[in-house]
Design brief:
Elements lengths: L3 E6 L18 E12 L3 H7 L1 H5 L7 E7 L2 E3 L5 E8 L7 E9 L5 E10 L9 E9 L7 E9 L2 E11 L2
Parallel strand pairs: 4-10
Antiparallel strand pairs: 1-8, 2-3, 2-5, 5-8, 6-7, 6-9, 9-10
């Protein structure tokens, strides 16, 4: 099971090789954590984005905040590993596709998730977007050094290293 959330959060640009998609933002924050907490955006944010924004398939009316940030996880204590990324300076009236790829200790892709959405034409520059993905931790999951790769519009923008052990 994989979960993703694309939500309200905003700065910077990379050139994307993918035509038809917006430039990839280069100002962002990423964290790995053992749990998250969520809250609804403020009424003013909801009003600025409008109902149509939240009706898009991959977008949720919640923003995730990392709790228990770390890069080492254990099978006994952790049920999930979350990757929470916050993106700034997204362009107005643009389409973005965020994706993550979890790479096991053998270098093989374990799972991939993605979320796509369009920003409103009158996007407030103070708004930021959050993309969240997770990896379920279970007994048969390989132990060792893992990676999670984060892509925007097909461009690799970040790789986070993590360790999964039995204790």
């Amino acid at each position: 099971m994989r979960r993703l959330t694309a939500i309200i959060v905003g700065f910077g640009l990379l050139v994307s090789a993918n035509l038809g998609l917006a430039m990839s933002p280069s100002v962002y924050q990423t964290a790995l954590c053992a749990s998250i907490t969520s809250s609804r955006p403020s009424a003013s944010v909801l009003q600025r984005l409008g109902d149509e924004f939240f009706e898009q398939g991959a977008t949720r009316a919640l923003t995730d905040f990392p709790v228990a940030i770390r890069s080492a996880f254990t099978k006994q204590k952790d049920n999930r590993i979350y990757m929470v990324s916050r993106w700034y300076d997204l362009g107005p009236d643009e389409r973005y596709t965020f994706s993550s790829e979890w790479i096991d200790p053998d270098g093989k892709a374990h799972s991939t998730t993605s979320a796509s959405f369009e920003t409103p034409e009158d996007l407030d520059p103070g708004i930021y977007f959050t993309y969240t993905a997770y990896l379920d931790v279970h007994k048969s999951l390989k132990e060792g050094q893992w990676k999670v790769r984060i892509f925007v519009n097909g461009d690799l923008v970040e790789t986070q290293d993590l360790t999964i052990s039995s204790e």
